[in-house]
Description:
Elements: H1 5-14, E1 33-34, E2 48-51, E3 60-66, E4 71-74, E5 79-86, E6 89-93, E7 96-100, E8 105-108, E9 114-116, E10 123-130, H2 137-151, E11 154-155, H3 156-164, H4 189-195, H5 200-211, H6 215-232, H7 237-243, H8 249-260, H9 264-269
Parallel strand pairs: 1-11
Antiparallel strand pairs: 2-3, 3-10, 4-9, 5-8, 5-10, 6-7, 6-9
Helix pairs in contact: 4-5
Amino acid sequence: MYILASLTRWSFAENWFTLNSHFPQSPLSQSMLAIPPPKSASRLLGPWDYWRPTGSGIVELGTVRGLDVALPIHFHEEDQLTFVLSGRRRFVVGGDLFDVAPGQGMHIPAGTPHRSLSEPSEVVCINVYMPSDTYAARDVISSLARHWRRTGHIGWPELTIIVEDHRLSTDAIAVPTGEGLGGEPWETVSQVAQRAGMSREGFSRQFRKRHGMPPHTFWQLEKLNEARRLLRLGEPIAAVAADTGFSDQSHLGRCFRRAFGVTPGRYRAG
C-alpha cells in the first residue's frame, strides 16, 4: 500500500529541481503568487488556503504561507506535489529529512506517511493534490520551475494548465490492487490482530515497523482523509463527523486541524 523507503527516496531525489542561479532573492511580493481573493476574512486566519479547479483531474490546489507550517505525521489519499516559492519546507519521511529550497519541488506519493517542520523564516509554497499515478510529477516540477524562472510568478490558471499538460495517458496509469490493510473495515486494533492471528501488542509492533505509525493513528488518518473527500463535496460538517465515526463536530474539528493545519469549515469553503 505504501511506497518503500528506498523507492520514496529515489522518487523525491529525482523530482527535485534547483534554480539557485535564477531564483530572485528579494522577498516575495503578492504579484509573485497570483492567488484568488479570499471569500471571507476568516480564510486569512491560518497559513493554508485551498482552491479546487473545475474541469480538471486535479483534486485541489493549495498555498502555504507563514512560519508555523509544522504538521504531525499524516498521509494523503492523493499524490502531493510541493513547490517552494520563498523560504523552505522541510519534510521528514521514514526517518529521513528532506529540505526543499526555493525553486525546488518534492513529490510525496499517495499513502506515504510524512510530517513537516516549522521554519525560522516565512515560507511560501504551492501544494498540488493529484489522483495517485495520474500525472508525471517530475515533469510537472520541471515545468513549474521553468515557468517560475521565466515569469517570476505562478497563478492558479497557469498552475492548472502546467499540471494538466503532464497528465499520463490511460495506458500509463497504474491500476490499484484494492488490497487494503486488514481487508474489511475494522473498529479496534484487537479485532484486526485477532483476524491476523496475532496478539494486539505483536500486531501493533509489526504495523508500526512497516508503516511508521501505530494502527490507531493510521485508522484515524484514513477517517480524516474520508472526511476531506466529503467536505470537498460540500457535505455538512456535522454529517461528515457522524459518517466518518467521530463523536461530534468538535471532535472532528480538533483532529482535522491537528492533521491538516486547517479547520473543516475553512477547508470546505475552499
